[in-house]
Amino acid sequence: MPHRSFVYSPLPGRVVFGVGSFGKLADEFDELKVSRALVVCTPEQSPLADMVAIRLGAQCVGIFPKAVMHVPIEIARQARSYARQTGADCVVAIGGGSTIGLGKAIALESSIPILAIPTTYAGSEMTPIYGITESGEKKTGRDRRVLPRTVIYDPLLTRSLPAAMSATSGINAIAHCVEALYSDNANPITSMMAEDGIRSLAQGLPRVVENGDSLDARVDCLYGAWLSGSVLAATSVAMHHKLCHTLGGMLDLPHAETHTVVLPHATAYNAPAAPLAMARIARALDADDAAQGLYDLAKRLGAPTSLEELGVRSADLDRVADEALISPYPNPRSLQRDAIRQLLEDAWQGRRPASTATSTVNAPPGAG
Ligand code: NAD
After folding, report:
1. Domains (ranges, CATH) in the chain?
2. How far is the centre of ligand 1, averaged over its atoms, from the C-alpha of 4 (Å)?
3. Whose CB has fewer CB within 10 Å in the chain, the N or C terminal residue?
4. Minimum CA distance residue for ligand 1 atom 28
């Protein structure tokens, strides 16, 4: 197969992965050449922030335990002001995407480095993408200052993530990989990572849901989450993410659950226009069909499969379809209003997508 042209621009950053790697925090702190940490977390994860403070001793200058979903500007302002007051020279963000998002809001203003310790599979720690919500509107952007300089992935810290959250957070991560495979700026490296990310999560998640203490399964999922965050950072997202942002923004739906419900349907929509990506997704899932494989995985994990379950009313679907077509993201299949409306209907009902497998193409390694 001829090599197509591509641009690959890897991002800097140090990843320390492994069971017990949280124990290397002090060494990583020295490596970063910082000495005054502000630790951020959600109120529920305060005990973890306390553990960080104990490990850092005098090098921890404060804890800000008020991270919440979608980074409201008021909380970001409080955290920034606290960072200035304490003279912090770095942020340690320990938690999920909301906590890391708050760390990013601080770094965006102050340019101090972030050391991230993720405890979910959302993937924000690998990206230079930030989001801040002001007057009910979430504004997102990309800025190298918010890309964490060091990421410590310790599967031990994910054992407390409940089964239901593990399942949806993991499928949210799979969604990053799925869209990376048909992204308009996919390249052989990101595609390789995306396929392996799906495989690792699809193999780990059922074992995590069965036994949340299984460290092997937690390792597989966190490894997949790392790959998913990496490809999210390096490629641009498409219609699936646009639909989820629209649904989340308009109807205030939970982030990971929305991704979980929409993904099989967005995949089915794009299948005719991205056969190679579909073959790779199916191969990674060990399924005959990409969209059906994703749906079956969600079912097997006991995750939500319909928008109705998330509280969406059928009457909302028309305006969601209209809104999703405004400033669309690049997408392999062109966006047709009727077909998008049908996709939303299918997602609302929670139907298993029809088979979209067109061939048994064996995708060559590294092809996008
Ligand atoms: P979250 O960070 O909102 O966490 C949800 C809840 O789970 C919180 O109460 C948290 O304290 C708790 N929690 C986290 N880890 C836990 C653990 N190990 N055990 C027990 N409880 C735990 O959820 P999320 O899905 O990680 O993040 C979602 C947010 O991240 C969204 O706002 C999304 O937009 C953002 N996000 C951003 C990017 C990016 O690149 N900027 C990427 C992905 C997601």
Report:
1. 14-158 (3.40.50.1970), 163-362 (1.20.1090.10)
2. 36
3. N
4. 97
